[in-house]
Amino acid sequence: MLTPKKAEKIQNEIFKRMPAEKRIKLAFKVNDKIFKIAKKKLKSRYPDLDPISFSKKLYKHLSLKRKFYEDLFNQFLKEELKKFQS
Fold first, then answer.
1. 70 to each of 8, 76, 82, how far by Cα in Å?
2. Which of 5, 55, 58, 77 gets the highest tally of CB atoms within 10 A of its CB?
């Protein structure tokens, strides 16, 4: 059975073997995807904010609210898993 601890160990081994360029590209891809999810989620919560207020709210959520970021990352993982299950 694949436990979270085993999965983390496997992931770390894969990352160790991965060239630095590929790890960096992956990090940017994950960051970009999480940013898009965050924007979509906040837009649904605050549909009437002007662009500047929205940007401030987005920055506040991403930089100060750990739970918000963890939720985004979990949503990202679910979306990525769907790709492999299809």
1. 17, 10, 19
2. 58
Nearest to 54 by CA among 67, 70, 41, 72: 41
Which residue in 82, 66, 70, 76 sits closest to 33, CA to CA? 76
Other Cβ atoms within 10 Å of 42 Cβ, number: 19
pLDDT in tens, 7-34: 788 888 888 898 888 888 888 888 888 8
Decide: residue 57, CB within 10 A, 0-12 exposed, 13-18 middle, 19+ buried.
Answer: middle
The answer to whether the CB of 46 falls within 8 A of the CB of 85 is: no
